[in-house]
Design goal:
The structure holds two protein chains of two kinds.
Chain A (H helix, E strand, L loop, with lengths): L9 H54 L4 E7 L2 E8 L2 E9 L16
Antiparallel strand pairs in A: 1-2, 2-3
Chain B lengths: L5 H56 L5 E7 L5 E2 L6 E10 L2 E10 L5 E10 L6
Antiparallel strand pairs in B: 1-2, 1-3, 3-4, 4-5
Classes of the chains: A alpha+beta, B alpha+beta.
């Protein structure tokens, strides 16, 4: 007694291709959404850090002399405050940034 | 000598393929659902940060010495006067020792914990601009 073998035909091939395409789409969608969320969290943390530095700066300002200067630092960000003749002449937020030289970026015409 | 029925084999093959395909589709649907959830959370957090900054700037630039305020917004940051809001911005501030200090808290109606808080502080003592 012989049994007809079960073979994979064109239908299987089609469904396999469709499955691969859908899986790739799903992975890319999830990766993009995850990256969006990480970026949003990074933005929220940056704003919160900035306001915390501002809070420290305002407290320092209350007790500052007419000519004074301070650099406040927190988690890699700095706030420079300068008071001259009783007026705030500088209130600068900065963050250390290192240029990534791994990629050879085109500098533009004229360079 | 009997031969297997080729039509039966075809049906079995097709049924197996369809079942496997349905299983894959169900799994991928879960992944798409997770992606949407991540995207919604990112949008809510970004909007919460913007609303918190707006509330903070409003308090620091305002005339009120102390107070509390609570405002509701839809998901797209449109103010909401009735039900159906998603975000609530709660601001509490007071003046003490020459400083106007407070906190802005943004709450999500679908969660019990705040999704974002922002400290606010401004020196209002002497006339230093």
């Amino acid at each position: 007694m012989n049994k007809a073998p079960i073979k994979l035909g064109p239908l299987a091939l089609l469904l396999t291709v469709i499955s691969i395409c859908l899986t790739t789409l799903a992975i890319l969608t999830f990766a993009t959404a995850r990256a969006d969320r990480r970026l949003a969290e990074k933005y929220a943390a940056t704003v919160q850090l900035r306001y915390e530095l501002d809070e420290d700066g305002q407290k320092w300002l209350r007790d500052a002399a007419d000519d004074d200067e301070i650099v406040l630092e927190k988690d890699g960000s700095t706030l420079t405050i300068r008071v001259e003749n009783g007026e705030v002449t500088a209130w600068r937020h900065e963050r250390a940034w290192e240029e990534d030289l791994d990629i050879d970026v085109w500098p533009g015409f004229g360079f | 000598m009997k031969k297997g029925n080729p039509i039966t084999a075809f049906y079995v093959e097709t049924l197996l393929l369809i079942l496997v395909f349905i299983g894959i589709i169900l799994a991928l649907t879960q992944v798409f659902g997770l992606s949407r959830n991540e995207s919604v959370q990112a949008k809510l957090l970004t909007n919460a940060v913007t609303l918190a900054q707006n509330a903070a700037d409003e308090v620091l630039a305002g005339e009120a010495v102390s107070g509390e305020s609570e405002r509701n917004f839809y998901e797209d940051m449109t103010p909401c006067e009735d039900r159906g809001y998603r975000l609530t911005v709660r601001t509490v501030w007071r003046e003490e020792d020459g400083l106007r200090q407070g906190t802005v808290t943004v709450l999500d109606s679908h969660r019990s914990e705040p999704i974002y808080t922002l400290p606010i502080c401004r020196y209002v003592g002497e006339a230093i601009p």
